[in-house]
Structure formats: C-alpha cells, structure tokens
Design brief:
The chain contains 14 helices and 13 strands. By secondary structure, the protein is of the alpha+beta class.
C-alpha cells in the first residue's frame, strides 16, 4: 500500500495533536497496533506516547492496517490545515460536535472524523471536485430561461431513484446518491454511484490472493443560475447524456430543458488577434497569452496543424504571419495570470461545448472574461447557432 501521510510520518507532526485526541485515533485500530507491538497509553493515566515508534509504523503502512484507519489518516492529513479551518468549524457546529477555544486544525479534523467520518469524506470529495477542469456545457432550450434557486425541488429522491435504476441496468450496482450544495451563482450536485466490478491480484501477508470489489465514482453536475446552463463532469458519455435528461426532467419538468449548443467560439483569435486577449478591464486579471492553437484544414487527408509557443501571437508576428483564414479553429490553450497569484492558470477551450480550466471562485472570473471577449456564445446567440 503506497501511502505517505504528511501529519503522521514524522514525530514532530504527531506532536501537533492533542495527546488525548491522538490516543482516540489509535484506539480505533487497537488490535492492529497491538500486533505491531505498540502500546497505546490509556486515556488520563499520564502515559507517554512513543512518537518515534508510532511515526515509523504510520510512515510505512502495510496491508494489515485497517482500511478505516487508512482513510481517516488520509482525510485528517488532507483537511487538517489552516485553509480548511473555517469550513471544519462550521461543519462541527452544524453536527453538534463540541470544540474548545484552543482547538487546532489537525485536532478539529480528527474530532470530526472520530464523531462523523462521513462529513470529512464529503468535504474531501467536494475539494477534489473543485479541482476538476473538464466540463461539457448544455444551454437551455428556452433562451429566456431564468433559474430561481428557491423554486428548485429540495427532495431529490425521485432523481436518485431514476439514476439508481439507470446504473443498475448498466450493471453498476444499486447504490446512487445525489448530494446538493449551493454555491455563489450556481448549484452543485454530486452523483455518487458504483462502477463495473473489478478483480485484481493482491497480497495478504505472505499469501497471494485476489480482491473483488466495485469501485465508486462521483460525477459532478453544475447548474449555473446566473448564466443559465448545465455543466457536467463525467467519464462516461452515456452517463453525461442521461444526466442532461434526468436533471432537466426532475428539476424543471422536461428532459429537453437543456440541449447541446455551441458555447465556445475561437473566432476572436482570428478576427482580433492579440486584442482578443485584452484583460486590462478586469481588475483580477494581469495578463493572457495564447500558447497553443489547433487548426483543422479538412480535406480527404484530415489535415490538422498546431501552432505552439510561449506566445503564439508574438511568434507569428516575428514570422510576419497571422492566423490563416481557411482552417477551422478547433482548440486553444490560453495562459492567464491572476493578480497576486504566482502560478498562471491554463484555460483549454474546444470549439463546441467542452472547456478545461480551474473551478471554484476562479471559474467565475474566467467565464466573465471569456464572455466579454466573445469566446463564449450564450443566450439568444447560442440558441440560434444550435438551431
């Protein structure tokens, strides 16, 4: 089991925990530590924790370590830091988990995991989903559509039931849950479901064996309420089509509420050149550079070409060239620098309805800029193009 845990692999990291809380974590796998010859101090007796011995066990976990403990250590190490502290504090308050005034981020994450581990699992999933970049977008069939969050159904039972039947018929198990989270300007839905079963060789002690299991996947569906559209992240094209139908049906009463429509248009790169990447009117943006442009010349030989450089427009300028008139522009990569953030973000746009760029708060900034520069076709124009 290849696992390295930041908070648990060094004695100094372990000392960051309140000893009583660390003891509670260890007691969840008492038999495992006893087999390793590690004595767990009894709570309140003043016994010292052997941090060096404990770190050596946790730094190199084996197949004997209980799965629940492995998951717990991973979650605590991922979420037990300052950046998640406010979220964890709110989570503990809503769940009625008592927290004192001197609690640290690692202790807080551990307390939540000890009381209600599912809460940490959901938070970790949400964080990973925010990092997902590739989404396909579907425009409303009615270009004048207005989404009122208050009018959306609170009970997602019928949607879950329909998706459960769908996945069961696809031999992906009977479990399906749809979780909802409201976000600024959008509603996020997380669809947890099984995948096809797997059988893999594994090792148990000195024995060679086989593990049979059904992996779980969580897909993400975003309902944009400010610029009405449905955005979906899923590894399966059939699942994506089913989400479009069922979310439209159970949220708005029609499976055809959303439809495929071209969202991203790369023509501004050809028409305006470098000016299409102007961002001085956006206070959060510092600069934007085109780093890659794929062009489709068509023809019997399916001819494609790619311009690639640190700055494609500057490279073309040096060659006294420009984006040619003939080929269709298929894909572009734009490196955008946010003010105050050292690392630039890469925006990947495909002519059609697929995009790739960071989600969360940054996504709203990028979407607004892309709309202003007319890389995004939306509203009435999107409906007319689809028609």
């Amino acid at each position: 089991m290849a696992l390295r845990l930041r908070y648990f692999s060094h004695p100094d990291m372990l000392r960051q925990f309140e000893p009583a809380i660390l003891v509670q974590i260890l007691q969840t796998a008492e038999n495992f530590f006893a087999a390793k010859g590690f004595p767990i101090p009894a709570p309140g007796n003043g016994g010292e924790i052997d941090y060096e011995a404990l770190a050596s066990i946790l730094a190199d976990p084996d197949e004997e370590m209980p799965g629940d403990l492995v998951d717990g250590l991973h979650l605590i190490s991922e979420l037990g830091n300052e950046s998640y502290f406010d979220d964890l504090l709110q989570m503990a308050g809503e769940a009625g988990i008592p927290v004192d005034d001197e609690v640290t981020p690692p202790d807080l994450a551990a307390l939540i995991w000890l009381a209600q581990p599912r809460l940490l699992q959901q938070k970790d999933q949400e964080s990973s989903f925010e990092r997902r970049k590739t989404f396909e977008s579907f425009a409303p069939a009615d270009p004048s559509m207005v989404i009122n969050v208050e009018e959306l159904p609170q009970d997602l039972g019928e949607l879950e039931s329909a998706l459960r039947d769908y996945f069961r018929k696809k031999k992906k198990g009977r479990r399906c849950r749809v979780l909802r989270k409201n976000a600024p300007g959008a509603v996020h839905f997380y669809v947890q479901h099984g995948q096809a079963c797997r059988r893999e060789p594994s090792v148990k002690g000195e024995d060679s064996t086989c593990t049979f299991f059904r992996p779980e996947r969580t897909d993400m569906v975003i309902l944009d309420t400010e610029n009405p559209e449905l955005r979906i992240n899923s590894a399966s094209a059939p699942d994506m089509r089913k989400y479009r139908e069922l979310f439209g049906l159970h949220l708005f009463g029609s499976a055809e509420t959303f439809r495929y429509a071209q969202k991203y248009n790369l023509e501004p790169l050809r028409k305006l050149g470098q000016e299409s990447l102007e961002c001085s009117d956006f206070p959060d943006l510092e600069s934007a550079r085109l780093t890659e442009l794929e062009m489709d010349w068509g023809g019997a030989l399916n001819n494609k070409s790619v311009e690639k450089a640190d700055d494609v427009f500057e490279a073309l300028k040096i060659r006294h060239a420009q984006v040619p008139d003939q080929p269709a522009l298929k894909r572009a990569k734009i490196k955008v620098k946010l003010k105050g953030i050292r690392k630039a973000r890469m925006l990947s746009l495909v002519a059609g309805n697929k995009s790739g760029y960071p989600r969360g708060e940054e996504a709203a900034i990028f979407e607004e800029w892309l709309r202003a520069r007319e890389f995004i076709i939306y509203g009435k124009r999107a409906y007319e193009e689809a028609a």
